[in-house]
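Issue: copy button drops trailing tokens. Both records pasted manually instead:
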Amino acid sequence: MRDPVTAIIAAAVLFGITTPVLKVLLSAIAPILLVALLSLGAGGGVLCWLAVSEPGFAGLALPSLRGRERYWLAGTVVIGGLVAPFVQFTSLAVTPAAAASVLLNFEIVSTVLIAYLIFREPIDRRTGVALAAILAGSVLLSWNGGSIFDFSIGAAGIILSCLLWGLDNNFMGRVSALRPGMIVVVKGLCGGSIAWVLVFLLHEPFPGWMPIVFALVTGFLSFGAGLVLLISALRSMGAARAGAVYAAAPFIGCIVSLLLFADPLGNQFWAALPLFIAGAMIVIRDHWAGQGLN
């Protein structure tokens, strides 16, 4: 997709749909095995796609990396391909759904703050307002009227995973020498291979073939195709602006969960909806204005 706004919206949809799917997969697959399957599905699937989509396997070219880009790539392989998903999946398995929904929104906060504090990426006031609106909608949608902020090992683990994903998002956006597809291939195959070795070292049990196939397909669609779209948007829009739209992914996941589990739509849903729409439209309108499309 050439338009970064379209790319980040598509990435948010893919990752949002994946959230309830992961909850189902974790009931049948151990976290480290799920990391291996999702990563290998993402890397292997995108590799096959690149191999058949361009003549002469031109899409598989690996140019030499210069300077800090080698460290950015190594960081995204280790952090985003192995550590962050393992911490998140392990924590999701022991954390109540309501608390997890709130805490997972820290990913966008950590992405923007790391971009601002470490990489000196500017954040304008309108982007800050959009981010605040989307996060407010996330909290409102996730709040169940009780005390869901009591910290536990699972909650601390989710916060840690969000910080790691924030680092990963910033690292990926700065590996400019590699095409987004090749970043996903390297990240998925390397991270998945390490996780696969750990699966055998830890003697993790294997489920039936249906959950395995389902995990591989989910990995390709979300952590493969979705990640390619996310990287493209990060490069064009920056972590702060792209992240403000990407923060709608938990909202999309909530909609899918409601439909999947036949839960009724409550007042919180309709109260949060305008906040998500307003935040996303601010970022989209600003981007279009900057591209002269208004």
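Record 2 (pasted manually too):
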Amino acid sequence: MLLPSLAQRHRQPEWMDQPGIDPLAHSQALQGLRRINAFSGAVGSLFAPIRSLALEQNDKPLRVLDLACGGGDNTTALAERARREGLAIQVDGCDISPQAVAIATRNAEERALGTRFFQADALHGRIPEDYDVILCSLFLHHLDEDQALELLRRMAGASRCLVLVNDLIRSPLGYGLAWAGCRLLSRSPIVHFDGPVSVQGAFQLSEVRALATRAGLAGAGLRRSWPERYLLSWRRPGCSPQER
């Protein structure tokens, strides 16, 4: 493994984002990402603030939307956590890829979660405004700075209460973990290439703070989480999910 310079973002085309990707290779890559997502513990980091908000609801259903959800691993895992804890939380997901939506829908139906997946462009399409929580995971690093700013603004504008962003941190540790973890947890050449490349395109914590400020997410929280990721959380001022 040769460690590249990480002083600046270096965004490169990722194989999974290429048009016309082979469906079998795409499915294999999504399976690898499913194992990596499970290992990362990202769902626990995302679920904690969702749980807190749900407990304020007095048993009124909380609606959660996972933007750019890919194969829906985090979406279904969040729905399963809510079901295990007996919380009234509806978790849905959307993605620009019809193949990813089809795979996510099939996996959710097998678990009888009641999770709905639909096709949508998180950057240019309309973001539904009837969700209390809007989140994205491992999506921000795909975007240039202007796109990232616009996404954060759009998420804040559409969400009734809470915005959550979980993503990679650009650092030597993050690169090493991505390089090794992708090879240990997946046989997919797509995942082997895309994992380290994703870290090269990711933001550092200071850059995320600056983005949140510029996007108007005043008072946003930002904390580091395993494995070399961050969770950005922003709650709409005066948000009272019980009064809707």
